[in-house]
Amino acid sequence: MAPSESQGESEISALQRRVAERQSTSLPHLIVEDLERMIINGALRGGDRINESALALRLGVSRGPVREACRHLERTRLVEFRTNRGMFVRQISVDEAAQLYDIRASLFGLAGRLAAARTDAAGLEESRALVTRLAGAVAEMNDYYPLNVDLHRRLVALSGNPRLVELYDGVSKELHLFRRHGLETAAARGISNAQHGEILDALAAADTATAGRLMEAHILAGKERMLAAARG
User: Fold this and answer.
1) What is the mean pLDDT of the chain?
2) With pLDDT > 90 as the criterion, what percentage of the chain qualifies?
3) Which residues contact 86 (CB under 8 A, 6 or more apart)?
4) pLDDT of residue 3
5) What 3 state SS string does the chain have?
6) CA-CA-CA-CA torsion for 52, 146, 206, 110, nearest 10 degrees?
7) How confident is the model at residue 182 (pLDDT cuts 50, 70, 90)?
8) C-alpha dist (Å) from residue 142 to 37, 70, 139, 171
9) pLDDT tier at 9 (50, 70, 90 boundaries)?
10) What angle (nearest 5°) sits at the alpha carbon of residue 167, between those of residues 230 and 174?
11) CDD domains, from UniProt (predicted)?
């Protein structure tokens, strides 16, 4: 189901408030963050047009910062420029999504092995708190998905490897255009979150082999759900 107009309006209003609080030099970065958030939350979906002039007008800024933000998102492959038509949220094929899932699974598995080897008690506690919040959000996709994204990024950060986090973020951002397909049902979200608990148990036990295996398998399970949903 397409996101409601009121959801998009709410996202824009929140962005307007943040724009008013920042200096102009940080506007492009701020707009990038919020456009990414709108993609994660489903307020913008693959194929949606980003009207730079309308967005600038609604934010009360010039087109320059909006254009710069869109160019940055184009470099990260979240949006694409179509000649004589403007900027659009990029659409990716099922085959491309599957390839990205495979890359992401390998990175997530590596993060698991590294994280288990350097147990971060505080980080694990924060992650367990997120799993609890996810359990309470299983019924509603728009509540569950952003928390799920946050948890996965936190788990990768537990690796203590900033370059790995950067690589994972790049792949994950492209997959935001497709990842929701694997979590469309409450049952799928419940299964996914149960796996989160198993992963945290392995990390807490400093079991590098199991943590790596479970984290890689977790992403590959998401890939299979995505493929099943795409097949209809």
Assistant:
1) 88
2) 56
3) 49, 50, 51, 52
4) 45
5) CCCCHHHHHHHHHHHHHHHHHCCHHHHHHHHHHHHHHHHHCCCCCCCCEECHHHHHHHHCCCHHHHHHHHHHHHHCCCEEEECCCEEEECCCCHHHHHHHHHHHHHHHHHHHHHHHHCCCHHHHHHHHHHHHHHHHHCCCHHHHHHHHHHHHHHHHHCCCCHHHHHHHHHHHHHHCCCHHHHHCCHHHHHHHHHHHHHHHHHHHCCCHHHHHHHHHHHHHHHHHHHHHHHHC
6) -40
7) confident
8) 12, 24, 9, 21
9) low
10) 30
11) WHTH_GntR
Say which amino acid occupies 226: M
| Residue 211 amino acid letter | A
Task: Write out the two tokens for 195.
Answer: 């796996």
Prediction pTM value? 0.80
Amino acid at 196: H
